[in-house]
Write a structure and sequence with these properties.
It is built from two helices and 18 strands. The chain is mostly beta strands.
Amino acid sequence: RNIDVGMFNNCINLESVCVTRPPSMNITGLDWYVFENCSALSVIYVPDPVSLAAYKVAPRWSDFQTLFKDFSTDLSFIYDSATDSYFVTGGASAASEIYIPAMHNGKYVTKISDSAFGSFRNLTTVIFETGSRLQSIGYNAFGSCSILANITLPNSLTSIGGWAFSDCYELTEIYIPISVTFIDYGAFDLSDYLTIYAQAPSMPSGWDSGWNNNGCPVVWGVFMQ
């Protein structure tokens, strides 16, 4: 629940921090000297306004307040009454890093909508908050994110839409958890340097026959923590 004294002290090459927490917890403190001498640090992301407010009582809030950013403000959401959850519909198109929270307004985030981040030319990294309940990545959700290089799909994910990761030229590996029961045609089309690691021992019956139409190398039966 706390970031303790000196935890990142003298990490001179640390540029950004993303603080996540399970949905049932709130972060309650930023302690003395935690980011002391982190000369390259430019931003500290927190999941939502509640977590951000928790830091304001910290002993050294005034020293670091200009670095803190609620990363949910970079995203747009729509509430889906059928699932009683939120869908991510987009974000700041110039962003280089995107953090997808587990919850928004007290509800789980369960889907990244069609074309939500399509053609985000500066996007390099996508991080899902610990405790994510994301179930679906829509059609073209990250299509033509030409320098996207880092994404770890959450273990709750069940569906990946067509062209979701097409034209992601810098994406060299992706791990597909066994929870994924459907991948649509062309999900990784033209991502020419990609190797796909799948937890499933072989192609699940629910995946479209053209899910890997680009012929990316696939390694089956890989388990990652």
